[in-house]
Design brief:
It contains 2 helices and 13 strands, in the order ββββαβββββββββα. It is mainly beta and 179 residues long. The protein has a single domain, classed as Jelly Rolls (Sandwich), CATH 2.60.120.10. Strands 1-2-10-7-12-5 form a 6-stranded antiparallel beta sheet, with no helix packed on it. The protein has a 5-stranded antiparallel beta sheet with strand order 9-8-11-6-13, with no helix packed on it. Strand 1 and strand 2 form a beta hairpin. The mean pLDDT is 95.
């Protein structure tokens, strides 16, 4: 695997080695040893799948507050996403900075989202399926979010959102006091 560290500490784009022959292709999506050697210390607690029927479906911004340590690896199994992460770690040198990445099943990419970062994505294709390895158990009492179009961050999405849940649409404005 190839690990491309981004400017926000812990955000890593992962590209697998792909082995192809007459049967098709094979790739590894998780290797604790390789991940650890590249700064990802993820103990997988859950695996989740997000199935998104429509193009331009929005999910997020979601994050878990301390004491949760919800890091995750996102892998589009089909389709692709425009993924935005915002660093909500007050001690980080990139606190409140954001990064946007296209992550695609066609390129067989994965993305490590470190604990303490809010995450949102917009599907770029219909029938986009995203697999998640989660580094902590879901804790409803720690679950938080803010709107994808929160004016505090002014994220520029590549397309108008067509599908979004009522919960994601009505999250409150971001507030540092809520961290």
């Amino acid at each position: 695997m190839k690990f491309s560290h981004q400017f926000i500490e812990g955000v890593i784009l992962i590209k697998p080695d792909v082995f192809e022959d007459s049967r098709g292709a094979f790739r590894r999506t998780f290797c604790a040893k390789e991940f650890k050697e590249n700064g990802i210390n993820l103990s997988v607690c859950q695996g989740n799948i997000s199935e998104n029927t429509d193009q331009y479906t929005m999910r997020g911004f979601h994050y878990q507050k301390s004491p949760s340590s919800e890091s995750k690896i996102l892998t589009p199994v089909s389709g692709g996403i425009y993924n935005v992460l915002i660093d909500l770690r007050p001690t980080s040198s990139t606190f409140l900075k954001s990064i946007a990445l296209n992550v695609s099943s066609a390129l067989r990419e994965s993305l490590h989202v470190p604990a303490g970062c809010a995450n949102a994505f917009l599907t770029l294709e219909g029938n986009t399926v995203v697999h998640y390895y989660m580094g902590d158990y879901f804790k409803p009492e720690s679950y938080c979010g803010f709107r994808y179009n929160d004016p505090y961050f002014n994220v520029q999405w590549p397309h108008e959102v067509r599908v979004i849940s009522d919960r994601d649409k009505t999250f409150p404005d971001f507030s540092i006091e809520n961290l």
